[in-house]
Amino acid sequence: MNVLIIGGGVFLGRAVTDALLSTGHSVTHFNRGKSTAPRSDVETVAGDRLEHLDRLQRRRFDAVVDTCAYVPRAVEISTQTLLASVERYVLISTLSVYDYDVATPETRIDETWHRVGLPAGASRDVMAAETYGALKALCEDVVLQSYGERALVLRCGLLVGPYDPTNRFTYWLTRAARGGRMLAPVSPDSPMQFIDVRDVARFTVRVLENHFEGAVNLTGIPASVTLGDVINTASTIAGSHPDVHWLDTDAIERAGLQEWSDLPLWVRDARFSRIFHNVRIDRALGAGLEFRPLDETVRDTLAWAACTLDRPTPHGMTLEREAEALASVEGVQQ
């Protein structure tokens, strides 16, 4: 196959590129060149997707993988421009398209679950945290309406692994590897549902080769991994022995720690957390989704992180902030 990737340089795009090349397919990147330098093994067409996609109109591709669509206008432009010259359209979407507010703790969300709508008065053209899921749902609609049976929507959960720019998962690995007194939220039995980005990439190649279509959830097997498993695996690989202090929700709030930012992947709302980490992936498993072992993901991510000590860390605490938080709740823990 000859595959076009809109984006392609960062994390998922990088992993999909590697997976395609390793299986004998050819790849072309279309991006602005601002995030990463062009690769020597990939043709790169420079441009902004909102203005310069016409640079591809004379080219033909078997598929496009759109890794950076956040507002419907961008997808409208790409589908209109590429419809006649690209056979299949793969949109990288998110599990955030689902409406979790109408779910109960017992809900097992699958691809037919209600999607969240854009609030009245909210912009269709500017992505904000509170409208991220709704705008992604609108992007899905554009692709499905334009490409029909030639469309594939990959609703990804938490992506982890080497080259992750968010530090959400990597924080727990590197912190456990340092050892010492360590703060963690609530319980080692807290479930986590995530997927190695390289497994998503491998699945993407598989379904392109087999002409899979429609929407599919892509995340880990429900109830198979806990935060304790992640910390213990990282500790074993690193040979560290962290003294983990599991703080309950009240203690976390007294310490002034923020969900998701100070404590990545943790949210105070236990109902939401239970639903979000229990999404059904039957359709993906039926299409051949496979997972690498947890220790492989942890080992590779730690090795990458050790070589990129100057990378930005938008999620997680400094050691100083963690020590302050532990000191502030010391009486509660004794």
Structural account:
With 334 residues, the chain is an alpha/beta fold. The chain has helices at residues 12-22, 72-82, 132-147, 170-178, 197-209, 227-238, 249-254, 270-276, 282-286, 294-306, 319-328, 330-333, and strands at residues 2-6, 26-31, 43-46, 61-66, 86-94, 151-156, 158-160, 181-185, 194-196, 214-218, 243-247. The strands form three sheets. Strands 3-2-1-4-5-6-10 form a seven-stranded parallel beta sheet, with helices on both faces. It has a two-stranded parallel sheet with strand order 7-9. Strands 8-11 form a two-stranded parallel ribbon. It is globular, with a radius of gyration of 21 Å. The mean pLDDT is 94.
Quick synopsis:
The protein is α/β, with parallel strands linked by helices. The protein is built from twelve helices and eleven strands. 35% of the residues lie in helices and 17% in strands.
Biggest sheet statistics: 7 strands, parallel
Radius of gyration: 21 Å
Mean pLDDT across residues? 94
Distance between the ends: 61 Å
CATH class of the largest domain: Alpha Beta
Query: What is the number of beta strands?
Result: 11
Write down the secondary-structure element order. EHEEEHEHEEHEEHEHEHHHHHH
> How many structural domains does the protein architecture include?
2
> pLDDT below 50 for ≥5 consecutive residues: which ranges?
none
Portion of residues in beta strands equals: 15-25%
* CATH topology description of the largest domain: Rossmann fold
Q: Helix share of residues?
A: 25-40%
> So, CATH architecture of the largest domain?
3-Layer(aba) Sandwich
Structural class: alpha/beta
Number of alpha- plus pi-helical segments: 12
Strands in their spatial order, largest beta sheet: 3-2-1-4-5-6-10
Overall shape: globular
